[in-house]
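Hi there,

I know you've been waiting on this one. I reran it after we fixed the sequence typo, so this is the corrected version. Both the input and the resulting structure follow.
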Amino acid sequence: MMAAVSKSLLGSLLLAGVIMGLVTSSEASVYDVGGRDGWVPNPSESYDGWAGRNRFLVNDKLVFRYRKDADSVLVVTKQDYDACNGGNPIQKLEGGDSEFKLDRSGPFFFISGTPGNCQKGQKLQVVVLAVRNVKPGPSPPAPPPAIPPSPLPPSERPTSPPAPPPSPSSNSTSGTGTQTTPSPSPNPSHPSHSSSLAGASTITLGLAAMILGGAFVY
C-alpha cells in the first residue's frame, strides 16, 4: 500500500516539475528536512508531504538533523526506496546533522539507516527541477521600407472632362465687378437715303402731270 502511495506521489511531483517548467537558480537554498521534527521515525508530517511544499533546485542543500550514533541517512535507488531496503545504498550519511547537496536535476531517494525506521515513515523523496540559463530573445526584424507608388504614364493618366461653354444669357463675373453682355441694337436708318426717295417721288409725280396735261390739249 505504501509503495503504491509513493509511486503516485512521485508521479505527482514529476508532473508538477513539468508544469512549472525550467527555472533559473541564482542562489542555493538550505532546507532542514522535516522542519522542527528533524530526521525521526513516525514524523508528525510525512516527509513526502513536507517535500511537496517546497521547490528544490540544483545546488540546494538538505540538512538531516538526528542524534549522533543513533541513526543515519542512506541515499538509495527508487526500487530500494519502495522496498525500504538499506542493504545496497548509493551513499551513507552519518555523524548527525548530515548535509546533502542536490547536484543534479531529477529525483532523489533517502531512507533511515536504522532497520525498521523506514517502515515507520522515515523516508524521503525529492524532485529537483532543471536549471535553464535565461538568454535575451532576438530582436524582431525591422519592417520593410514603404515603396512609393510609381507614376502613371501620360497615356494612362486620368483626364478631366472639358468645361461646358458659358450660356449667352449668363453674366460673367470678373473680380468684384459684374459685366453684362449687351444685346444687339437695330441699325438706324440713314437720312440721306430717305431724302433720295422723297426726291424721286416728286419727279415721278411731275412727269405724270405733264403727260396728262398734253393729252387734254389734243
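Quick highlight: The helical segments are 2-20, 47-52, 78-83, 191-217.

Best,
R. S.
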